[in-house]
Amino acid sequence: MTGSPASVQGIPIRHFLEIDSTNEEARRLALVGVEGPLWLVADLQTKGRGRRGRNWQSPEGNLAATLLLKPSMPIAQCAQLSFVAALGASDVVNRHVPDAEVKVKWPNDVLADEKKIAGILLESASNDGAHSDWLAIGFGINLASHPADTEFPATSIAALGEEPPAPRVALDCLAASWSKWYEVWSKRGFAPIRDAWLARAARLGARIRARIADMEAVGVFEGIDAEGALILREAAGRTRRISAGEVFF
Prior knowledge:
Elements: E1 7-8, E2 11-16, H1 22-31, E3 38-42, E4 63-69, H2 75-78, H3 81-96, E5 102-105, E6 109-112, E7 115-125, E8 134-141, H4 167-188, H5 190-199, E9 207-212, E10 215-224, E11 230-233, E12 239-242, E13 246-248
Parallel strand pairs: 2-3
Antiparallel strand pairs: 1-2, 3-4, 4-8, 5-6, 6-7, 7-8, 9-10, 9-13, 10-11, 11-12
Helix pairs in contact: 3-4, 3-5, 4-5
């Protein structure tokens, strides 16, 4: 760890020059009793990961950060924080690429000009199967660079022609925006978060392709429900509720 400033938005920070994964470090800390809230940020991740165990490239110059929490709430309710996180991350991107079209893509990506610029990974554990013992919310934001060989096209702040902020500057912005949206969620519930997310949703009302386990479904993206599940209108007006999957355009 380094001797960087100790907190952001009143939440302590642990800063690493290099680490395997900030989410993995959050898990290790939770297992030895660290409850959070705590920000973990790394200049370089050697084994960063995305959803479904995919590799997440985390070179220096980009933001790799995890917020460790100990939420006293059901696991299903914790999943709503994915949308809180997406709003926070999209605020960071909007601030630094004001001329780009910044959108959120279900379930937890941020797009700039229809290319992925940020991803979010929620991981948790539960002893009783119903309530989270800890929650790690991982953020990866492409500031200075982006991978070229991804299934969904990627971009970065630098690639969009803007001067990328230093990772610490981006973290300050992210922490402030997270705190703002988290307070909304804490005081008013998921409804205003859902409304704000839908106002930024990519391809709302358009045809999309949803990958669900070993199958795909095609239809019109109608929105998300009160629990955050995607609503897809298929042929003949049938609707499908998708609680886990991936979306492609």
